[in-house]
Amino acid sequence: MVFEVYFSDYLKKFNEMKPERWNYHLGCVLMGAEYLYQATGKKRYLDAILNFGKDYVDKDGVIKGFRAEEHNVDLMASGRILYFLYDYTEEERYLKGIHYIMEALKAQPRTGFGNFWHKEIYPGQVWLDGLYMVQPFYMEYEKRFNHKSNYQDTLNQFKNVKKYLYDQEKHLYYHGYDERRAMYWADKETGRSPSFWLRAMGWYVMALCDCYEISDDFEARVVLGTLLKEAMEGILPYADKDTGLFYQVVDHQDMAGNYLETSGSAMVAYAVLKGSRLGVLDREKYFAIGEHILAALEAEKIEARDGRFYLTGTCASGGLGLKDGIPGQEERDGSPEYYLGEAVKDDNAHGVAACMMAYSEWLKGVTARRRLQYDKAAAFL
Length: 381
Hints:
globular; 13 helices; 10 strands; two-stranded antiparallel ribbon; mainly alpha; 55% helix
């Protein structure tokens, strides 16, 4: 597929990048590389992960650019790749890095109902993004090092998101919630932001299926599986009828300026395909849906120009309130107009990472289906 050529070219450039600080964009690309390495065994995916670890984690487990005092869940997302690095290399620095991030998480401020704040600069706020940034890392830590003692904490945080951010009529999730009702974007009665942003929903469904896969606990899988099925049943009716892709503002398909956005569509494809592979979702029905979305992404969003491929149509950024809390910056009010006004970029890491993840799940799903067909055929011999 064209995707494989594109990912190979992208990682060559990725390996040359030397950002000054640890961030979730890098981590998402590396999780995509990990999944593709699992699916294919190709060295280029492994090399990207090993190069990152070497450059960003020193011998004492100190992570370049990770600032625990920020209480920022975005900075914790890349911690997931440390599990792979430690398992593969057995180098103690990666284990130290894992524990360092966990110590930061233990100090993360919480809402009155127990959910992690998104950041210190966004007090009392819960964003859908934050579930992906931290809950899979948290569950993996509990599974490996703490006898799953705090699984219930993760489950409660997902349940609270359902309670405070789910719209019963549209069956979609709002981007953020402010328990103080103090932010200009927060509804004074519900505390919710005003719109349904596609990538926020994408972060949420990816968090659910990743936590489901990590967990080997019956209660956790019932809770997470139920929420995943409900979320997928909620968002899939909003897909574009021709391509299966989704709009930047999910429920405003006919709004001027709305567009089929790449990263969120790929995130939904990933969750659909992974849910199918894990048996949470109907295997045949949802594999076909995910395959259709993935094929549309390749056909509609990969463009050939200047002798190379570009991944188009990804929203560069999206948030609520002042970016990084700095006065004078754009006041992100969470309206449909705000989301449609954010820049759209080529080769944006959000879109690349999500496509890598979705493609890896398609490969794993194809392999699983072939294995099942082989087993069925063998039963007759």
